[in-house]
Design goal:
single chain; 5-stranded mixed barrel; 9 strands; 7 helices; alpha/beta
Length: about 240
């Protein structure tokens, strides 16, 4: 056990999917896993392990933001021996071309600033995913007919900001497709531990068009992302 996870060693598979929301973790386990079992309930941050296409796969909710995310990622990598992390998260679109409810595959992540969170060099440069996982994601998305965009993700510590459009002007000028809070941290901590990582993001609002999904649909709209994540987990080993 760790301070934030009550699972025993061996309860997590080598590959863990990381939604932020514990309700999404439970929905993913029920929807995609064969014989899922709950391995963590501590602080309500649910974790599950089961089989997908005969391969063991786990899910662990991480909460919101870098601080919470890094706690779970660090303990999974450092204490439970996990070797692959796949984020199944949400994002805001930064381009009108990135449609609401669509999927963004993060080719690389650019942090918003260099002053905050100097842990493992999280904010000192752009960070990217494991090349093999990225290639697998792009191939499987095409094979499954999942509409998607792949490109730059901007990352921020602040969810509500009074001048969001001006705040992300530089990121948009660099071609950023979306903004989230955790992808840069995912790529940096995975590199620190010598693990593999990939971020998949579902667009739940768009800062350019002003569109917004309703929370009531926030499980069903993750179907494509969940399906792709599990296919990568099964094949991208």
């Amino acid at each position: 056990m760790t301070p934030h996870i009550e699972a025993n060693r061996g309860d997590y598979a080598d590959t863990v999917l990381l939604p932020g929301d514990p309700q999404r973790a439970e929905w993913m386990a029920r929807t995609f896993l064969e014989a899922p079992r709950c391995v963590n309930r501590r602080r309500g941050s649910l974790g599950f392990t089961g089989l997908f296409r005969g391969q063991p796969v786990s899910i662990q909710a991480t909460g919101i933001g870098v601080s919470s995310f890094l706690i779970y990622a660090h303990e999974l990598l450092g204490y439970y021996g996990v070797r692959t992390l796949i984020r199944t998260g949400t994002c805001g679109g930064l381009s009108a071309e990135v449609k609401l409810r669509g999927l963004v595959i993060s080719r690389w992540a650019r942090p918003e600033n260099t002053e905050n969170g100097q842990v493992f060099g999280l904010y000192d440069a752009d960070a990217g995913p494991d090349a093999g996982l990225l290639a697998c994601a792009l191939a499987k998305a095409a094979e499954l007919g999942i509409d998607h965009h792949a490109g730059l993700t901007a990352c921020t510590d602040i969810f509500y900001h009074p001048e969001a459009h001006a705040r992300y002007a530089e990121a948009r000028a660099l071609g950023a497709l979306a903004v989230d809070m955790e992808t840069s941290a995912l790529y940096r901590i995975a590199a620190h531990f010598g693990a593999r990582a990939l971020s998949l993001l579902t667009v739940v609002d768009n800062l350019v068009t002003g569109e917004l999904t309703d929370y009531s649909e926030r499980q069903e709209l993750f179907a494509d992302m969940g399906r792709l994540a599990f296919e990568i987990a099964a094949e991208g080993r």
